[in-house]
């Protein structure tokens, strides 16, 4: 080595200088590449400094040192490739936040401005129902169910119509509601409705459930397992089916008002208190009558049986009836 330093030939000088320049160039390129990988920059920089220290302390023209350097640099390069590949794979499989979409953001602003007073800013309910758990919202497909409710309202439930909303505004609100449901469901492994353990719900007795359906509960007076409930377990998840048992979808209440004059008014019940009754008759006319002496109001509530059962249900009854209905495939 001493002889090499004292009497280097032109070729030897060129080879040595080229090797050093090449090493420096490679190190600069590797340093730029490493700095671009922020999460792993510090640890990689320390390793790189060790390599530079070895370069300064080692004569690069000696084969035994070159083999060591090649091994170290190769080890670092493989580690970086694996790290970047793993990082890229994680980023590739990461699911974007549905709430970040532009139409969802517009829908959220519109919803909070027009709907949050009753349904809450996150659509989880306030004085109005929780829309995240709404069967209608969850069965909606691009606004085919929600759209009409938003535009026409539900006057009998106190929800005003929004006829001035454009199609784009309705679509944005629909997108916001579906994105909110997606976020809510993804907090569990498969979502509250799809992933809830059946073992937690189907703990009842099928025979006892059928007996309650036919006798104590009186369900068979209005429902038939060969009619409206045929294949009901295929239509709804276990959680949703139990929810519909306890809180069935709204049904239209009708009423017959008999006036002292002998006139009878029939129609959809809109309002009833101690002073007035309001109906929408078959022709679509709004009728409001004061409840004077001699006025008789007979209300037909399709959900009266369900409301009465809520006062009588025991936990065992609910599990028994749910387990029985789950057999109606």
Description:
The protein has 329 residues and is α+β, with helices and mostly antiparallel strands. It folds into 4 domains: 2-93; 98-186, Cytochrome c-like domain (Cytochrome Bc1 Complex, Chain D, domain 2, Orthogonal Bundle); 198-249 and 306-325, no CATH class; 254-300, no CATH class. Helices cover 53% and strands 9% of the residues. Strands 4-3-2-1-5 form a 5-stranded antiparallel sheet, with no helix packed on it. Helix 3 packs antiparallel against helix 4 (63-93), helix 5 packs across helix 9 and helix 11 crosses helix 15 (315-325). The termini are far apart.
Summarize the structure.
The chain is an alpha+beta fold and 329 residues long. The protein contains 15 helices and five strands.
């Amino acid at each position: 080595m001493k002889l090499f330093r004292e009497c280097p030939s032109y070729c030897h000088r060129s080879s040595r200088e080229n090797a050093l320049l090449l090493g420096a160039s490679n190190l600069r390129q590797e340093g730029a590449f490493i700095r671009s990988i922020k999460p792993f920059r510090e640890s990689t920089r320390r390793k790189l400094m060790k390599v530079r220290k070895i370069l300064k302390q080692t004569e690069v023209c000696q084969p035994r040192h070159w083999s060591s350097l090649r091994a170290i640099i190769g080890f670092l390069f493989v580690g970086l490739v694996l790290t970047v590949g793993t990082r890229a794979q994680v980023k590739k499989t990461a699911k974007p936040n549905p709430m970040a979409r532009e139409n969802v953001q517009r829908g959220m602003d519109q919803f909070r401005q027009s709907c949050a007073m009753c349904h809450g800013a996150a659509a989880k309910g306030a004085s109005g129902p929780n829309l995240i758990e709404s069967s209608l919202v969850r069965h909606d497909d691009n606004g085919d169910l929600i759209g009409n409710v938003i535009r026409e309202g539900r006057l009998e439930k106190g929800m005003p119509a929004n006829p001035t909303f454009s199609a784009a505004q309705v679509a944005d609100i629909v997108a916001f509601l579906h994105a909110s449901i997606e976020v809510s469901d993804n907090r569990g492994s498969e979502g509250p409705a799809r992933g809830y353990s059946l073992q937690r719900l189907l703990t009842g007795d099928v025979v006892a459930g059928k007996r309650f359906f036919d006798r104590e509960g009186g369900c068979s007076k209005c429902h038939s397992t060969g009619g409206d409930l045929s294949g009901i377990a295929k239509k709804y998840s276990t959680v949703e089916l139990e929810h519909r048992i306890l809180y069935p979808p709204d049904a239209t209440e009708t009423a017959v008002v008999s006036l002292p004059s002998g006139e009878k008014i029939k129609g959809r019940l809109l309002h009833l208190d101690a002073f007035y009754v309001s109906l929408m008759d078959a022709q679509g006319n709004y009728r409001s009558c004061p409840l004077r002496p001699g006025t008789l109001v007979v209300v037909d509530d399709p959900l009266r049986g369900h409301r009465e059962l809520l006062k009588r249900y025991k936990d065992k009854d609910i599990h028994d009836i749910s387990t029985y209905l789950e057999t109606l495939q």
